[in-house]
Design goal:
By secondary structure, the protein is mainly α. Helices cover about 85% and strands about 0% of the residues. It is built from 1 helix and 2 strands, in the order H-E-E. Strands 1-2 form a two-stranded antiparallel sheet. The radius of gyration is 72 Å and the shape is rod-shaped. It starts with a helix and ends in an 18-residue tail after the last strand.
Length: about 200
């Protein structure tokens, strides 16, 4: 093999190696750009994930606070339910007592109703008696008024008799009979004095 051919073979080989290296470099460079692009996308995704993580942490903190608040409210509700249960038990006990009291009142009401019926009947009897007594009182009042009037007439007649007696005594004294209407069994006054009592007529009932 002569030197010229060897030189050409070396040149071709070098050119081939150079072309291969260029292609290899270009492929590596392209792969680098692809990797850089992928890396940037991954960085963006990581940043997004970090932001999401931060948001989730904040939300988790809020959820923890809300959970703590809910736990407090649940505790209050449990206390309220416990107190309500106690109040409900007391209400049932009070209801039992009230029911018994109502039964006692119903029994007393029945007794009072019977007593009221008896009292009503007795009242009707008393009203009848009162009416009768009232009529009797009216009648007695009329009679009493008559008796009162009669007493007035009697008192008036007594006063008249007293006046007549006084006048007679005065006359006898003047005539010398010394105040006697009757002396030695004989009347000292020449005329007789007649006293009549007229009863007051009773009103018709």
């Amino acid at each position: 093999m002569n030197k010229g051919m060897l030189k050409n073979i070396l040149i071709v080989l070098l050119v081939s190696i150079t072309i291969f290296s260029v292609f290899k470099y270009l492929a590596s460079l392209k792969e680098k750009y692809v990797l850089l692009n992928t890396l940037n996308q991954i960085k963006e995704q990581v940043a997004t994930l970090e932001n999401d993580k931060q948001a989730l942490l904040e939300k988790l903190g809020e959820e923890k606070e809300l959970n703590a608040q809910l736990n407090g409210e649940v505790s209050e509700i449990k206390d309220y339910l416990r107190a309500s249960k106690e109040r409900l038990a007391k209400l049932f006990a009070d209801y039992g007592q009230a029911q018994k009291a109502i039964e006692d009142l119903n029994s007393k009401f029945s007794t009072l109703k019977s007593e009221n019926t008896a009292l009503r009947d007795e009242k009707e009897k008393l009203d009848t008696q009162l009416t009768q007594i009232s009529e009797e009182n009216k009648s007695l009042k009329v009679k009493l008024d008559s008796i009162t009037e009669l007493k007035k007439r009697i008192r008036e007649l007594k006063r008249q008799v007293h006046r007549v007696t006084t006048i007679t005594k005065v006359r006898k004294i003047i005539e010398g009979n010394r105040g006697f209407l009757i002396k030695n069994g004989k009347p000292t006054y020449p005329t007789k004095v007649k006293i009549e009592v007229i009863p007051v007529p009773q009103d018709k009932q």
